[in-house]
Amino acid sequence: MNRLRAVVVCLVLACAAVVSPIATAAPDTTAGSGWSALPVPAAAPPVTVKDLAARGPRDVWATAYEHTADGLRPLLYRWDGTAWSRDTTFPGAGEPGWLGKVQFVGDEVWIFHNRAGSGEILRRSAAGTWSAVPLPQTLWTYQDFAAVPGGAWVVGEDSTGLKVLHYDGSGWTTRSTPDDVLFLMGITARTADDVWAWADRRTGGMAVLHWDGTAWRDAKVPLPTNGNVHTMLLEPSGRATIGGSQYTDGVGRTYLMTFDGHAWRTTYPPLGDTYTEGMVRGPDGALWLPVRSDRAFQSKYARVGGSRTTFSYGPKRTNAIDVNPRALVKAGTSLLSLGTVEIYGSKPNLMSERRGG
Predict the structure, then answer these.
(1) Dihedrals φ, ψ of 188, to 5°?
(2) Within a 10 A sphere around the Cβ of 307, how many other Cβ atoms?
(3) Are 219 and 196 in contact (CB under 8 A)?
(4) How far apart are CA 293 and CA 290, in angstroms?
(5) Distance (Å, whole) CA 127 – CA 61
(6) Residues 197 and 239 sit within 8 Å (Cβ to Cβ)
(7) Whole-number Å distance between alpha carbons of 279 and 241
(8) Which of 163, 206, 319, 334 could hold 356 in an S-S bridge, CB 3.0 to 4.6 Å?
(9) CB 120, CB 134: distance < 8 Å
(10) Burial class (CB in 10 A: 0-12, 13-18, 19+), 106
(11) Cα(201)–Cα(178) distance, rounded to whole angstroms?
């Protein structure tokens, strides 16, 4: 039995190295990379990580959910600058459901909550008390959520098709989109009158939409042909970055599009077909994102600074067969990641890593 176990472990490690599409990319910068492991209170594995958001180095929130025999259960964690702790004080913490995107709105923390199929926005005040804002209707699919001072958005679908729900602080309204829009894949906002979404078209392909406070309109972003959009980063300066994949003959490659306030510029860094949803602007001004690692016992991160892309590994984890960071966030002068680690013989559980101090 021990000999068979050793063979299985070797096969898993070998497969993890073979399947990585970026294993032969630019040399990594392991030495001096500065990544260290942070303890996270364990959940009931397997666990799925959803989102990570920071107001500063001592106020970071993370959402996830457990896969239990009774269905999904929401998980909420907070980093106070010293340690991760689990929060079980929010409404519905012990009920079926899951938590989605987390946002900072003024002095409050807002989190989308699927509570046994019904949607609501959880709000945590500066004093630490929780309240909930129920959605006006139940949707089949809750695709994404965005909130800023003065407004919040939830996009999804019900039996009649696409639904775009807008909350102005006092009540909900349903907003229409251009006729060619079939489904909104994601949404993000800089202000209440500067909201962006990416959508599937009825005629095929994708489009980027913009809300100017009055209506949704096609932003006419020149997306790559045969491509999709994973995420969009909006910055206070007006700069915006889109990450996605373009497919040629069934083979995907990651692209990045950056808007400088005047025009869009498209680049193709050596990232293979990396899913860019976890991408953030780091404290050094570069773009950082988790990538598939060619080492089963270590995470891997990419840094895209201008035309140069480099890679760094997280700390080695004993007996790990998969280390999978899912979300990154800038927390002061540090980068924090949250994801899962699968130790041989167990199911994926939470892990966190930090670069900088």
Answers:
(1) -150, 160
(2) 7
(3) yes
(4) 9
(5) 16
(6) no
(7) 10
(8) 334
(9) yes
(10) exposed
(11) 10
Cis omega (within 30 of 0) for bond into 39:
no
Burial (CB count <10 Å: 0-12, 13-18, 19+), residue 236: exposed
Residue (of 31, 21, 26, 30) closest to 307 by Cα position: 26
Rounded Cα gap, residues 242 and 70, in angstroms: 37
Question: Closest by alpha carbon to 280, among 39, 51, 36?
Answer: 51
Distance between CA atoms of residues 247 and 224, nearest Å: 9
Q: At CA 275, angle to CA 35 and CA 46, rounded to 5?
A: 70
Output DSSP code: residue 128. S
User: pTM to 2 decimals?
Assistant: 0.89
Tokens matching residue 324: 């999978």
Sequential pLDDT tens for the chain (357 residues) = 444 334 333 433 333 333 333 333 444 444 346 999 999 998 999 999 999 999 999 999 999 999 998 899 999 999 999 999 999 999 999 999 999 999 999 999 999 999 999 999 999 999 999 999 999 999 999 999 999 999 999 999 999 999 999 999 999 999 999 999 999 999 999 999 999 999 999 999 999 999 999 999 999 999 999 999 999 999 999 999 999 999 999 899 999 999 998 999 999 999 999 999 999 999 999 999 999 999 999 999 999 999 999 999 999 999 999 999 999 999 999 999 999 999 999 999 999 999 997
Strand partners, 210: 196, 217
Instruction: Say how far residue 111 (Cα) sits from the centre of its chain.
Output: 14
